[in-house]
Amino acid sequence: MVTISLCMIVKNEEDVIERCLASVRDVVDEINIVDTGSTDRTKEIVKMYTDRIWDFEWIDDFARARNFSFQQATKEYILWLDADDLLTPEDRDKFKALKQSLDSTIDAVSMNYYLGFDQDGNVTSHLRRYRLVKKENNFQWIGAVHEYLAVSGNLFDSEVAITHSPLSHDSDRNLRIYRKMIESGSPLSPRDTFYYANELMDHSQFEEAAHYYEKFLDSKLGWIEDNIGACFKLADCYHKLENKEMELNATLRSFIYDVPRPEACCRLGYSFMEQFKNLEAIYWYKQALAAGNKDYISLQNPAFTTWLPHLQLCVLYDRLQQYDVAYEHNESARKYRPNDERIIHNKQYFEGIFQKQNDENL
Fold first, then answer.
1. How far apart are alpha carbons 342 and 250 in whole angstroms?
2. CA 86 → CA 80, 127, 205, distances in Å?
3. Which CATH number does the domain housing residue 146 bear?
4. The last residue of a domain, from among 111, 133, 164
5. What is the DSSP letter of 300?
6. Could you report the per-residue pLDDT of 275-315, keeping only the tens digit for each?
7. Can you point out the beta strands (E) in the chain?
8. Recorded E.C. number(s) (predicted)?
9. SS3 for 342?
10. In sequence order, what are the residues at sequence separation of 6 or more whose Cβ sits closer than 8 angstroms to the Cβ of residue 18?
11. Ranges of the chain whose pLDDT falls below 70
């Protein structure tokens, strides 16, 4: 069985750090915590789980801090987490099984990263990240902000999921770091340009965000998944700016990089739906369902291949007075979101129509 060092960087995480460490303490062999300047009870809480604690002066560079944390590891593999991440009991069992069975020739292991949930506990957004890496390979973190771990070699996709469950965060921090880089004359890499545009969009600076998304795409140096993501983000910017033509163009631009993704299909379906071009809208929503879920490493939203197109198809077939088909799609949507008020209302609405039709036939 392989041995594992947990390596984390933290700052003022007293609200979440114990939850994280308690969820993982029995699946790792060592816990290494690098504190970048906490002024709350973070260190006090961490001491309940480990005495391997280091201080690192924060210099607006996440990669440097993470690389320093990796240097403290003494075991065969390194697991990294953020303080607001955790392992659920189910995924803790999966992790233990992975640890028992992991072939030591594996250089890096990816895990699902669950980022959002709906009211029924269904995952609404997720991606894959390489979470467990072989120490002797000396893999390095790259990037002052929105850093990534550069891995290579014998890679393995596991069934383990890390759940992201933040209580709060410094929403301006990343934007400040990027602006500091720009002001100092440091050029933004294509990846930095993409993530800077994301930060601008998150702060409702849609015109500037659109400019940087366009700049990123025009560079032709982006990773395919980021290119596609940028097209959808760009469409959102133009939607906020009420420029429907540019919004549509941005969605269609994603076709340059791959076959139509389910999100693109749903966006096109909605565009036709708004114009009451019902048959065209039906075509695109059916394409979203036909595409199904694929295990991309980039951010995914299962809604685009499950309840959302079914719900929209329900509305569209209702417009065409094809109530039986509309009802079937609503029932398909209800399997995923049984407590959604819209879907419950639709069910009652169609059952009322069917009852009226039965009464008229008596």
1. 30
2. 11, 15, 32
3. 3.90.550.10
4. 164
5. B
6. 999 999 999 999 999 987 676 666 788 999 999 999 999 99
7. 4-10, 30-35, 53-55, 77-80, 85-86, 108-117, 123-134, 141-142, 148-149, 155-164
8. 2.4.-.-
9. helix
10. 45, 48, 49
11. 169-170, 293, 295-298
